[in-house]
Structure formats: structure tokens, C-alpha cells
Amino acid sequence: MQLGDFLTAVQHDLPIKIVVAKNNSLGLIKWEQMVFLGNPEYGVNLAPIDFVKFAEACGARGMCITDPRSCADQMYEALSWDGPVIVECLVDQHEPPLPAKVKSHQVQKLTEALVQGTPNRNRIALQMVKDMLDESSFAASPAHAVPRKIGQAAARPRPRWWAGSATVPGASTPSRGRAPRGCRARPGCRACPGCRAYPG
Q1: 59 in Cβ contact with 82 (< 8 Å)
Q2: How many CB atoms lie within 10 A of CB 48?
Q3: Pairing of the two strands 61-65 and 17-22
Q4: CA-CA distance, 1 to 26, in Å (whole number)?
Q5: Rounded distance, CA 144 to CA 3, Å?
Q6: Between these two residues, 187 and 13, which has the higher pLDDT value?
């Protein structure tokens, strides 16, 4: 559907509800460039548009959903309205649309794209790791993209000192710059819990 078609829906008072996943980018094209071609994203950023104001300018109603916790209630409200409605859902443009089964050549192409200079590549990579670890803790997850040991480690409860503490268990002083016994890294390397406190 194009925006002009929404005017026709308003003109004929059609009870059409349109949900827009707004990420200010051509998300599918962006991920196709990276995963299938191995190229950094190019020409996929869109100028932001306020779809709620567009709906109101056409004489219809619009709603913006920004908080996942209120999404269900807002969707029920929007679906109960008469006539055409646009529901704008703000989503993270760096959230990868992972397929049901990730193939090794897709991982290789994505890695090539990230190495070649995809903008925000650090944020994209961190989001992907976070998503895979979160999914691996679900009982129904196939966990096909996360090795079993990583998934099991992610599912274990964290020790108390893990979330934001500045000390390592048994240490009476802040751990930054202090390597634990047996650590071969230089002090302050930030590579292990003895060198820094994990952010949680």
C-alpha cells in the first residue's frame, strides 16, 4: 500500500487498519545488502515521516506505539476505532530480521559487510549477540545459531557481583586495573572480570 491509497480508504470510509514498523530505513534492503551480497549498507536511510500526523491530515486517526509494554492495549484501542487507522510502531533499525534457519554463507556475507564498514556495525553486532543469547534461554528455541555451551552459560544465573559491582568476589578494593591470580593479560585490559566490572 502506498500513502495515496490511504486517501482512498478515507474517502470511502473503509475500516482498514495499517500497522507501520517504523525504523526510518529500508530495513529489508539493508539486510539483503549485508546478508546476501556481503556489502555494507548503502542508500537505505529514509527521511523520517510522522505517520500519525499524515493520517490526521487525511482526516483519519493515527496512533504511535513506542513502549512494548503498552503495545497490546494500544493495538486493541486502534482496532476498535471506526474507519481507517494508521498505527506507527517505532522499532530499532539495527535489529536484524533473522530467518528461521541461518545458513553459514549468510553469516559469512554478513561478517564481510560488517568488516567492510557498515555504519553502526558495533551496535548491530552487539544486538545480534544479545538476541541470540536471549533466544537460547527459551525452552522452545531451536538455538541453531548459538553453540550449546554458550546457550547453557547464558541460561545460568549470574553471580551477585556480575551486575555493575566494582569489585571481584574476595577483593576488598575496586577491581579495575587488577588482574585475578593466573591472568596473563596486562592490568587494565578489560578482558576479564578481574580487570573490570561487567556492566550487567
Answers
A1: no
A2: 8
A3: unpaired
A4: 15
A5: 39
A6: 13
